[in-house]
Write a structure and sequence with these properties.
By secondary structure, this protein is an alpha/beta fold. Helix content is 41%, strand content 13%. Strands 1, 2, 3, 4, 5, 6, 7 and 8 form an eight-stranded mixed sheet that branches. Helix 1 packs parallel to helix 2 and helix 1 runs parallel beside helix 11. The protein is globular, with a radius of gyration of 19 Å.
């Protein structure tokens, strides 16, 4: 098996959620611990996030949000199937329930996704380098088709497909959370053909579910990278290489692209933060700071160098 050179995208999600999250994510970027961020355009601190991205030249994509807070499309704020009686999105599980019941209007989903892309462009001055979904809503049935159409229409090439190779063997994840993760993976597997049809691409490997929050450590990150890379190369030996993998000229060394999803930052302090209804428990958790401290440890950066792992952003991937 040829030795792999890994191009690693470390994405800091929820940029724009609150100033404390923004500060932590920016510190991670400046420390070389995060190489890419995903912006919530309906976040309470989105303007602060955009200013930080411009100041520090942080590569930035769109974290499309259909589950938390309020929409950015003005027409949908008055009345929409995407909103509960209080005027907020239905929540991480609520949107899935409403979708299963056939109660979401896909035309309204498209309206909101377009409005978020347009607002992103107004704020940053450019199209998102990539676009994924807050709480993985972009791979949900029906929504995946609308999401893919919007990406193709705008020429946004890259997204995230959250299928983590070693996930079923991660016994440290709580059963209820594992059930949700496995549901996300099932939805993602059913999304691949849709995204391929629309010419959308994603890194060869995704990790981040097994290393989130308290489960993040230098060892867990490196183990996830090693196991996923080995599994990918074994599969590649028996099939044709996917389009985002390639051989380094004259070296015979396979380059593999990998995204590590992270949620670092300083915990939100109520009532500040959120996407219109205040910060949730996830954003207030000490686990946000734990991720920040783990990702910025010098030992982790040294391990990357010794393992021939190169940090990059979605905008650096060859198209």
């Amino acid at each position: 098996m040829p030795k792999a050179r890994v191009k690693l995208i470390v994405t800091g999600d929820d940029f724009g959620y609150c100033r404390r999250r923004n500060q932590g994510i920016a510190e991670c970027f400046l420390a070389g611990a995060v190489s890419n961020v995903s912006l919530l355009v309906n976040g309470s601190a989105v303007s602060d996030a955009v200013q930080l991205a411009k100041k520090h030249c942080i590569p930035i994509g769109l974290h499309a949000n259909l589950s938390e807070g309020i929409p950015v499309c003005r027409a949908l704020k008055r009345k929409s199937t995407l909103l509960n009686p209080e005027g907020f999105f239905h929540g991480k599980m609520g949107i899935r329930t409403r979708l299963n019941e056939g109660l979401l209007n896909m035309a309204e989903v498209k309206q909101e996704l377009i409005a978020q892309v347009e607002l992103f462009c107004q704020l940053t001055g450019h199209l998102p380098h990539h676009m994924d979904g807050h709480q993985h809503v972009h791979v949900l049935p029906e929504i995946r088709h609308v999401f893919a159409e919007v990406l193709e229409d705008y020429g946004i090439t890259y997204t995230r497909v959250p299928i983590e190779p070693d996930l079923p063997r991660c016994g440290w994840i709580a059963p209820t959370l594992m059930d949700f993760y496995l549901g996300v993976e099932k939805d993602s597997l059913n999304t691949i053909e849709v995204f391929q049809k629309h010419g959308i691409r994603w890194p060869d490997i995704y990790i981040g579910l097994s290393t989130m929050g308290k489960n993040m450590s230098i060892q867990s990150i490196l183990k996830a990278i090693d196991n996923a890379t080995a599994a990918h190369l074994d599969n590649e030996d028996s099939t044709s290489p996917p389009p985002s993998s390639f051989l380094c000229p004259g070296q015979g060394v396979r380059t593999v692209t990998l995204e590590l999803m992270t949620h670092p930052g300083y915990p939100s302090i109520p009532p500040t933060g959120g996407c219109g209804e205040g910060p949730d428990d996830f954003s207030q958790s000490w686990e946000r700071l734990h991720e920040l401290e783990t990702l910025t440890k010098p030992d982790l950066q040294e391990h990357y160098r010794s393992r021939n792992i190169q940090l990059c952003a979605f905008k650096d991937l060859a198209i």
